[in-house]
Structure formats: C-alpha cells, structure tokens
Design goal:
It contains 2 helices and no strands. By secondary structure, it is mainly α.
Length: 69
C-alpha cells in the first residue's frame, strides 16, 4: 500500500513546470499553450483526486478492520 503523503507529488511538479513553460511562450502560440497548460492542470487534478480517493478508501478499510477486532 502506498502512503498518502507521497501521493501526487510528481503531479504538482508537472503542473508547475507546464505553467512556467506556457508563460514564457511567444504570443503567437499563447492560446494553444494556455489550453495545453490548463488541460495538464485539469489532468493533474483528476489524477490527484483519484489518488486521494484511493488513499481514503484504503485508510477507511484499515480502520474498519481495526474496529472489527
């Protein structure tokens, strides 16, 4: 099982690096870069949500097992 505090660290870093890259882009491709940046952020948030839900479910299952004994 993975530890909850380790979840999503690479996602956050990927989102911030995409933000830096898009802000430094030329004005001619800015709308496409903004769309790509936002898509990456949304994807990262979806992955983070899935990781948090998994961690929550695992913790809840562990708590349930402890309560039964």
């Amino acid at each position: 099982m993975s530890e909850p505090h380790n979840l999503g660290s690479s996602t956050s870093q990927a989102g911030s690096s995409n933000f830096v890259g898009s802000s430094a882009a030329g004005s001619s491709s800015a709308p496409l870069d903004e769309h790509a940046m936002l898509s990456n952020i949304v994807q990262g948030l979806r992955e983070e949500k899935a990781a948090l839900l998994t961690a929550f479910s695992e913790a809840r299952a562990r708590d349930y097992q402890v309560e039964r004994f």
